Amino acid sequence: MADLVRLVEHVARALVDNPDAVSATSALSGQTLEIKLTVAPRDVGKIIGRQGRTITAIRSLLSAAASAPARRIWLEVRE
After folding, report:
1. Residues whose CB falls within 8 Å of the CB of residue 7, separated by 6 or more in sequence, listed in order
2. 2-78 has CATH 3.30.300.20 classification
3. Backbone angles phi, psi at 56, to 5 degrees
4. Tens of pLDDT, residue by residue, the chain (79 residues)
5. Residue 52 region, left (φ>0) first, then alpha (ψ -120 to 50), else beta?
6. The pTM of the whole model exceeds 0.85
7. Helix boundaries (H) for 1-79
8. Residue spans per domain, the chain
9. How far is CA 3 from CA 14, 47, 49, 52, in A?
10. Which burial class, exposed, middle or buried, applies to 4 when counting CB atoms under 10 A from its CB (0-12, 13-18, 19+)?
């Protein structure tokens, strides 16, 4: 679980202009792992990408990296 949070933070820091403002937290709710990614307000668009392609790629990477196939991962981006 902590590895997935660090993965999200690492990828997000590589994409944004203000990497010091990036943080991620996680919570387990049943079979769902909820990861909340916080970035600077000006960097939200860089995380989402054009037509949501970047955030979709990050979510696909998370699904591939998850160790339990039955576990669901939810990624939310916050300012």
Report:
1. 61, 62, 65
2. yes
3. -65, -40
4. 789 999 999 999 999 999 999 999 999 988 889 999 999 999 999 999 999 999 999 999 998 888 766 678 999 999 9
5. left
6. yes
7. 2-15, 44-48, 53-65
8. 2-78
9. 17, 19, 24, 24
10. buried
Q: The tokens of 77 are what?
A: 């981006």
Q: What is the token pair recorded at 79?
A: 């300012």
Q: Which two tokens stand for residue 28?
A: 């387990």
Return the structure tokens found at 51.
């037509």
Nearest alpha carbon to residue 55 among 43, 66, 67: 43
Residue 62 identity: L
Q: Identity (one letter) of the amino acid at 2?
A: A
CA distance linking residue 50 with residue 5, whole number of Å: 23
Look-up of token digits 């991620």: 24
